[in-house]
Amino acid sequence: MRMPRAIALLVCTAALAATTGACSGATNPPAAGGGTTFKADPTSPPAQGPLDSFTWSLYAEPYTLDYALAYDYPPNTVLANVCEQLLRVTPDMKIVPGLAVKWSRPDPRTLVYTLRPGVKFHDGTTMTADDVVASLKRQMDPKTGSPWGSSFKTVDSVEKTGPLEVTIRLGKADVLFHELMAASPGTVVSAASLAKEGKDYGTPAGKLNCTGPYALDRWAQGDSITLRKNPAYWDKALSPKSEKVRFTFVEDAAARSNAFLSGTADGGYMVPSSSFSQLRGSNKGTLLFGPNTAAANLAVLDFHGALGNLKVRRALSMALDRKNIIKAAAGGVGVPAKAPAARGAWALAPERTAELYDTLPEPVYDVEAAKKLVQEAHASGRRVTLVTSTLAPEISVVANAVQAAGRQIGLDVVLKPVSPDAYSSIFVDPDAREGLDLVITNGYDNTPDPLEFYQYLRTGDFGNYGRWSNAEFDVAFDRANSEPDPAKRAELTARLQKIALDELPVIPVYEAPYSVFLGKRITGAPTGIAQLYFPWAATIGAPKR
């Protein structure tokens, strides 16, 4: 359920800013109980001039720059500017042509992509259908170990059917597969470079050869990653305004905020919510909010323990004081989550959002009723182990709130602290989940289709961390995934949403907008979660003087 990923749910991990389903230009109401009013727009004011370079802060060093293994915010934030996909997600959450200039669907089980001519890799060679075939097949190869492999489970073949044409044949209709060609699964890299780099590909010792507006210049492990401008970039509308981009890695939230305030870092995404007030009150730059597809959730990892009983899951959900969690964990910027997939994940058919998401009831907060459910389940005193980490301050805040809520209703919620690396491993390594009942996730979609989130709750899916299985859900998913019309598919997805809310394999907690801080030297950055695949650094330049 990636709850990470593709949030598609890819996961994952980190810094729990969630979504409020904020629309472009929409002013969102404060969180009940006294939150902060905020405005979410997809972009910041446009750049007016060039820059020699700027420095961007990441909350952690990427564990890889291999497109097939990139399954979290840090690696995708860098790769969004280096490697590209067949399709592209825009800052306002639309899916448009990318390296494929057009596509067709001759029948429900066939996709034909016509590639953009004349696109050059960073080494000057020209992209062809062979590169696309090699890139996609590598995702499918079990030896690669790609967390995106499940996205290809319906693919029967990927074939070159012309110098600039690739045909993909599916075992059954799969609308999401096509949409995910705008995310990591649709990434195209040089086939020759894959063969040359071998095991070094995507590591500090290897090289990347992609088509994006920036090329990898240097990865100084433990210190920084530097990108340089690609002068031969095909999309002139996104020709980089800065010659270089330097990424630094700052795990400590306070140190990261100090980097923004001191100017050591010119900007960064997923700003620590604990710093919102300080950054807003400074004259060092601007804190902005943008569209998000993510929600902070509790993913059940073990259905054989206390949480295997639905009454216990419902009780824990009812005991959560979400409004106070938002104050403490999200700086007051957010709303209680009504469903596992956030409101912002419904952007593909926005005309259906009010009917299918907004009409959902607010989550119930009733401690006494929750106590009764625990007693009815004969679960009083049962242990629930919740993993926590210093990876992001929000994780600790939510963990403490869950522990307090559990104890109020008779559950023995035990917190198990792990390192940031170990926390991230939970989302990609089943062995890392042993002995754990719950994990706090930031479940996001890579595309603006809520169906993407719910695919990770299918039986056997890579992102289904707790191995939850529901036959009715699986049948309903297949039906939705065979519907090409976005509005009709949204209605079918609402059925999946209902089953998930009824069964709670994932307990929704809160949504918050995406966040970005821009120092005074820079402007022009997209503000929303689309930055994971849109070449956001290319639009950053100097503000008007």
Counted by DSSP, the helix tally is 15
Give the structural class: alpha+beta
Order of strands in the sheet with the most strands? 20-24-19-23-21-22
Question: What spatial form do the alpha-carbon principal axes imply?
Answer: globular
Largest sheet: 6 strands, mixed
Based on CA atoms alone, the radius of gyration comes out at 22 Å
Distance between the termini: 46 Å
pLDDT average, as an integer? 91
Q: Give unreliable regions as ranges.
A: 1-35
Q: Give the helix proportion (percent range).
A: 25-40%
> Count the strands?
25
Strand content: 15-25%
Explain this structure.
Helices cover 25% and strands 23% of the residues. The protein has 545 residues and is an alpha+beta fold. The strands form eight sheets. It has a six-stranded mixed beta sheet with strand order 20-24-19-23-21-22. Helix 7 runs antiparallel to helix 10. It is globular and about 70 Å long. The N and C termini lie far apart (46 Å).
Quick structural overview:
The protein is an alpha+beta fold. Helix content is 25%, strand content 23%.
Defining key terms:
alpha+beta; six-stranded mixed sheet; four-stranded mixed sheet; 545 residues; globular; 15 helices
